[in-house]
Amino acid sequence: MTANIYLMGASEAPLLVDSGMPNENQKLLRYLGDKRPAALVLTHHHLDHVGGARLLWERLRLPIYAHPLDIPYICGEKRRPPFPPIPWLGDYIANSPRPVPKEALIPVEEGAEVLGWRVVHLPGHTPGQIGLLREGTLLAADALRVGPRGPWLPPAMVNHDTAEARRTVGKIARLGPETIFVGHGPPTTLEAVRALAARLGL
Q1: Superfamily of domain 6-199
Q2: Residue ranges of the domains in the chain?
Q3: CA 185-124-198 angle, 5° bins
Q4: The whole model's pTM is what?
Q5: Who contacts 82 (Cβ-Cβ below 8 Å, separation ≥6)?
Q6: Per-residue pLDDT tens digits for 167-180
């Protein structure tokens, strides 16, 4: 998948986190196989994370959780910022996912629980980006990217508010998870995130 998606928890009714690009629906269905997720969490509204949400709602009527600040983009009430920032084309690409009906979306905010995972608000990349925290493991979505040299902040061109995204790195460091899974790249460690936070002056 273009962005990492995760099946978390019990194999018979796992929690699905994110749903890939709009053109990856068949790949998503092959990935799920005969597994029927108990619910879907959308970490944020970008197309590479919500592209399969409408399909899953239509086929499985899954409960879909998202932050209230991102729900207007997911259900089509607001248009996403153009990506790439090219007139017309960028708007078309960014808004290519089929909207999820608003009634299918369950708003969750900081501190809520979804199937045993605590919701953590990780704003900056989008206004309502969320992560999931449990027992030393954090799913941090696109609050961080991870490459061969460790974690780094997503570039400004893909962030709603880069100053806030920087503060979110500090928040992750203070949360103290042992292992951090991200939307792009392999897992990283608390030590590496704390080093990034120090480089950012947080």
Answers
A1: Ribonuclease Z/Hydroxyacylglutathione hydrolase-like (3.60.15.10)
A2: 6-199
A3: 70
A4: 0.96
A5: 89, 90, 91, 93, 94
A6: 999 999 999 999 99
